[in-house]
Amino acid sequence: MATKEEKSQIKQLLESLFSKNDNISFFFLKKSKIKPEFEYQIPFKTKKKVSADKAYYAQKQLQKELGAPWEFVQWSQFIGKIVPESKVHKIPFFDTQNIEIKNPWRICPIGQHWVKRHPKQLKKGKITDHDGHCRKNPSKKDLLKGDEMELIATSDLFLNPKVKVSKINLKMPRGLLQLTEQTTRLAKSHKQHEYKDHFIDLEYEDLWDPNKNISFGVRHLFRKRETAKARLKREPTWFEVLMDYKGRLKSKTTESAKVREKLKNILNEMDTE
What we know:
Number of domains: 3
Number of strands: 10
Shape: elongated
Helix content: 25-40%
Largest sheet: 4 strands, mixed
């Protein structure tokens, strides 16, 4: 049976080789109920052949790193035929479905939000500082709050981006992204369906912070892509999405024509650059 240290090494190896999409689970046999020849057997379940191939590759890496004859064996070939299922742990040792998905620019995994450092009441009236940390969202939905946006803006990914902003003069207003108080309410409400897949929890006053406003604006832009698709009954172009963002997707007024022409000129200048 694996020691605690060996289990930690095995898990680290599995985490480095498998992703959530592999949909594979690994198990340990119950101690004291197995024959000595099965001591280093680790059954696994998967519906994907590619995952099975990766399991055998992982086996070679594991044997090399630990210097022990650990072997990954397919569940269907091992459990029930060689070892009774009752002698296998009910809880998987490692399941890729439990892997936390973390966006490369997010601070917290999907389904959690950042809670900044704050005072915490202890017993006997004592107060201590509680360090910043990720906390599970009560709604079990994805949620992006302003505190996390502030941290994201200070990450190296955004301070030193690979793609630099063009120096071309686009002759655009320098103000915020013209997001309304009504849009702010919709984006944070669990009762609304406008942003059902990803909530943004900001107050209207937060929109005057450039980092938060831009983050919110990008989220709103992708929501407009959904609405434009519904109205056009097909996949929209990003030009059409921007027109919907301005509330003028199907409008034929003189003012809408001016907006449409100005937007085309801006996009043409960007393409030229």
